[in-house]
Amino acid sequence: MKEVLPLTGPFFVASFRLIPAGLLLVAFAGFKGRPLPSGLTAWLSITLFALVDASCFQGFLAQGLQRTSAGLGSVIIDSQPLTVALLANVLFGESIGIAAASGLVLGVIGLLLLEVPTLAFDESNFSLWGSGEWWMLLAAQSMAVGTVMVRWVSKYSDPIMATGWHMIIGGLPLLAISVLNHDPAFSLSLKELTASDISALLYTSIFGSAVSYGVYFYSATKGSLTKLSSLTFLTPMFASIFG
């Protein structure tokens, strides 16, 4: 995402990551015979889910990626399992015990050990709002709340179908902001985008959203939310390897 943001604009990338992926996921769910959402409660729950997990998360993430240092941003965004653990305990009575709680804390320490050596900023000129860390923190909390919300949404809709529709609905406000913001994507021609740029956009939409969101939120309807969200500690590991 970070490579194509300067070329196309943050909100365009955020909307492109969601809308095509949502259409693919809805088509896949329909092909598998999964039912469409039905009733006001189902669509209302999906819309709220979309605004929190899709619009807010992707919007904040895109803003944060423009301003944040890679290391500290990664630590913030992937520390959201701590929020999930707290919410799951309060809302669903999930108790993880001392050992599991210690594991979450060790996970955050692990992120720090992995990323802190890459941090280099002048503390005298550091601005939380301008640097992007604040946006990353908001993105992390949006993702955490979205992870917990899917349990509620799946009571009224098929989880795969709901995930697809929440990406489509959540991407529309981001697309509107992109247009109003005059993101450079709308003045670009395809000739100005390299094969690498187009591949990056397609990858973030197909694999970074359609596949990963579908699997993640389907899994969130089963088992422990805290254990599931803790897998996001692996994200900076793979990011470091691929980087």
Order of helices and strands: HHHHHHHHHHHH
Number of individual domains: 1
Structural class based on helices, strands and sheet pairing: mainly alpha
Shape: globular
- Major sheet characteristics: none
Mean pLDDT: 83
Given as residue ranges, the uncertain stretches (5+ residues, pLDDT < 50) are none
Distance between the termini: 13 Å
Strand content: under 5%
Please compute the radius of gyration using only Cα atoms. Answer: 18 Å
Record field, number of beta strands: 0
How many DSSP H or I helices? 12
Helix proportion: over 70%
Give a verbal description of the structure:
This protein has 243 residues and is mainly α. The protein has one domain (5-118, 125-242). Helix content is 74%, strand content 0%. The protein has twelve helices and no strands. The protein has helices at 5-8, 10-31, 40-67, 70-77, 81-92, 97-115, 128-131, 133-153, 159-180, 195-220, 225-229, 235-242. Helix 2 (10-31) packs across helix 10 (195-220), helix 3 packs across helix 9 (159-180) and helix 5 (81-92) runs parallel beside helix 8 (133-153). The model has no long low-confidence stretch (mean pLDDT 83). One of its GO terms (cellular component) is chloroplast. It is found in: Membrane. It comes from Dovyalis caffra. Residues 2-114, 131-243 form the EamA domain. This is EamA domain-containing protein.
